């Protein structure tokens, strides 16, 4: 049996008296795109923070390609693409600087880039279609290009498991298609993508599987199995016809 | 031309002026480097807090005849830790915790100052005494400045990563909390260096204005560092000389020079300056112009 890229087992997380995640268990094999669906407050962000090891669960374990989060981080396994609101877009860094930050784990203590690092950055920029924009300040990009810049950072890092937090928020349909194309290319390289999203309409198109989260795992399977009207009603309180939940 | 040469040459003949220039330039340069990260992370209030919180440390050092840096460092780092403790262990928000700790520390310092016999010393602590620095002071400042710049030289990329995206720093196996502690440590040392030049009250200007000025002038972090240092060193030199010729307080003049530099950038920076943005708005009258 092949080892899962992401294995979450019996994870329970509590903030004070509030139960954020309860006995969450699922695993995703390598080379898959897994949509993580749920409302605000369903525990998606908490799950991400647990997978990345910023939160230690009260119970349960997380394994990334068999490694506990700390070792997975040290090995550069995890790539993180933040939500747009979490980034200071006026920060004086260029696209190429941001992508180079993906290489820091491979560098010496002063993080001085070597030829191999520059090559990896150039390759990541090329694969995300950002070569011509490499010297722009990060905030001078469109919403979709910004997302791709952070994806490029993970590619340059050599990450095998990507966590993408709401990658389609604030992105127009055309850019969304470009992002999906980039994400599919990464999957075809054998990388694993965990994508949190509100955008239910896009899920069947590009996700291989989906996890519906509401503190617990409500459903996990192929998108069409997960996105049934009853389950959506349970998790989102909406009918399937509306497509996009709030 | 000759007048200009004389303007610079005459004060330079005095030993106290050469010392003052050395201290204000070194302090200006080190503060300028740190100010870039302070501006970008939004730690201005924290810089202000640390600078005020060192007062009891400085006073105690005076009373016990210790090097002023020793007491200042203990209270600077201690108050940063205390702010963290109050924030984490109560529902009080970060800005309130910061405000409480630094004003409390400052107040303790004010009370302790009553024990100092002469009012001159009080004025020096609060407003700086760059014209009267001793050899020992200069030695301390040079050692602390060299140590700070050495750490920055080796760690500036990690610190910038921490300022930009601590979550990514965590994800690739770095320790953001350790980087935060490193930057707070550098902040404490830098505040102590700047105390000598401009005094406790105005340290925060040295810790913010150069970085904020540079931020208006460039979109590249490396250039921001260079511009910030240039602005700060320029203000230190001009301020020190101007204070000599005008016979006014040196620390205050340095800060006024920095504020002038910021005002110029605020008005005339190529893209961020309000004058050019106003013109662009007029040129595109009728269209909506986004603020950024």
Please describe what this structure looks like.
Chain A: Keywords: ATP-binding, Nucleotide-binding, Transport. Chain A: It comes from Marinitenerispora sediminis. Chain A: Residues 6-240 form the ABC transporter domain. Chain A: One of its GO terms (molecular function) is ATP binding. Chain A: This is ABC transporter. The complex is a heterodimer of chains A (246) and B (292). Chain A has nine helices and nine strands. In chain A, α6 links the parallel β6 and β7. In chain A, α3 (95-101) packs parallel to α5 (143-157), α4 (115-127) packs across α5 and α5 runs parallel beside α6 (173-188). Chain A has 246 residues and is an alpha/beta fold. Chain A has a single domain (6-242), classed as P-loop containing nucleotide triphosphate hydrolases (Rossmann fold, 3-Layer(aba) Sandwich), CATH 3.40.50. Chain B has one domain (2-282): ABC transporter involved in vitamin B12 uptake, BtuC (Orthogonal Bundle). Chain B is an all-alpha fold. Chain B has helices at 2-12, 15-41, 44-53, 55-64, 68-89, 94-113, 119-127, 135-164, 166-171, 176-215, 221-246, 250-268, 274-283. Chain B is built from 13 helices and no strands. Helix content of chain B is 82%, strand content 0%. The N and C termini of chain B lie far apart (43 Å). The model of chain B has no long low-confidence stretch (mean pLDDT 89). Chain B is globular. Classes of the chains: A alpha/beta (246), B mainly alpha (292).
Per CATH, the architecture of chain A is: 3-Layer(aba) Sandwich
Count the E strands of chain B: 0
In the CATH hierarchy, what is the class of chain A? Alpha Beta
> Compute the gyration radius of chain B: what is it?
20 Å
CATH superfamily of chain A: P-loop containing nucleotide triphosphate hydrolases
Oligomerization status of the protein chains: heterodimer
CATH topology of chain A, by name, is: Rossmann fold
How helical, in percent, are the residues of chain A? 25-40%
Bulk shape of chain B: globular
> Strand share of the residues of chain B?
under 5%
User: Main β-sheet of chain A: number of strands, strand sense, barrel status?
Assistant: 6 strands, mixed
């Amino acid at each position: 049996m092949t080892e899962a890229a992401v294995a979450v087992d019996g994870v329970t997380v509590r903030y004070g008296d509030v139960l954020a995640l309860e006995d969450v268990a699922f695993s995703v094999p390598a080379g898959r795109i897994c949509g993580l669906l749920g409302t605000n407050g369903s525990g998606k962000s908490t799950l991400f923070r647990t997978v990345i090891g910023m939160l230690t669960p009260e119970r349960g374990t997380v394994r990334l390609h068999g490694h506990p989060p700390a070792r997975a981080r040290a090995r550069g396994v995890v790539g993180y693409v933040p939500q747009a609101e979490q980034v200071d877009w006026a920060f004086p860094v260029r696209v190429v600087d941001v992508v180079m930050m993906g290489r820091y784990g491979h560098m010496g203590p002063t993080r001085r880039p070597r030829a191999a690092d520059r090559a990896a950055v150039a390759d990541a920029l090329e694969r995300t279609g950002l070569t011509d924009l490499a010297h722009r300040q990060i905030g001078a990009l469109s919403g979709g290009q910004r997302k791709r810049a952070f994806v490029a950072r993970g590619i340059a890092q050599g990450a095998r498991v990507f966590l993408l937090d709401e990658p389609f928020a604030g992105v127009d349909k055309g850019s969304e298609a470009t992002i999906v194309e980039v994400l599919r290319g990464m999957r075809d390289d054998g990388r694993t993508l965990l994508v949190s999203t509100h955008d239910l309409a896009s899920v069947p198109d590009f996700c291989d599987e989906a996890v519906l989260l509401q503190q617990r795992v409500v459903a996990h399977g192929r998108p069409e199995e997960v996105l049934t009207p009853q389950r959506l009603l349970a998790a989102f309180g909406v009918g399937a016809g509306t497509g996009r939940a709030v | 031309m000759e007048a200009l040469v004389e303007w610079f040459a005459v004060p330079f003949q005095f030993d106290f002026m050469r010392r003052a220039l050395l201290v204000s330039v070194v302090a200006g340069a080190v503060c300028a480097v740190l100010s870039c990260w302070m501006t970008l992370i939004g730690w201005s209030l924290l810089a202000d807090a640390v600078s005020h919180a060192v007062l009891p440390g400085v006073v105690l050092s005076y009373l016990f005849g210790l090097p002023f840096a020793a007491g200042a460092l203990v209270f600077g780092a201690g108050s940063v830790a205390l702010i963290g403790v109050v924030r984490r262990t109560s529902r009080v928000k970060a800005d309130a915790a910061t405000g409480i700790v630094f004003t409390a520390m400052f107040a303790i310092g004010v009370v302790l100052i009553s024990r100092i016999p002469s009012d001159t010393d009080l004025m020096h602590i609060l407003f700086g005494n760059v014209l009267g620095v001793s050899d020992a002071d200069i030695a301390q400042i040079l050692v602390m400045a060299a140590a700070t710049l050495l750490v920055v030289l080796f760690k500036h990329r990690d610190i910038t990563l921490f300022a930009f995206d601590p979550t990514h720093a965590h994800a690739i196996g770095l320790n953001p909390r350790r980087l935060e502690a490193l930057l707070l440590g550098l902040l404490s040392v830098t505040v102590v260096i700047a105390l000598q030049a401009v005094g406790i009250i105005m340290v925060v200007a040295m810790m913010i204005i150069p970085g904020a000025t540079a931020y208006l002038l460039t979109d590249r972090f490396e250039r921001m560092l260079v511009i910030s240092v240039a602005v700060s060193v320029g203000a230190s030199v001009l301020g020190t000389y101007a204070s000599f010729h005008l016979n006014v307080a040196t620390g205050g003049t340095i800060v006024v020079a920095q504020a002038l530099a910021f005002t110029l950038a605020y008005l005339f920076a190529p893209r961020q300056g309000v004058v050019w943005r106003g013109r662009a708005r007029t040129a595109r009258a009728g269209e909506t112009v986004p603020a950024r």
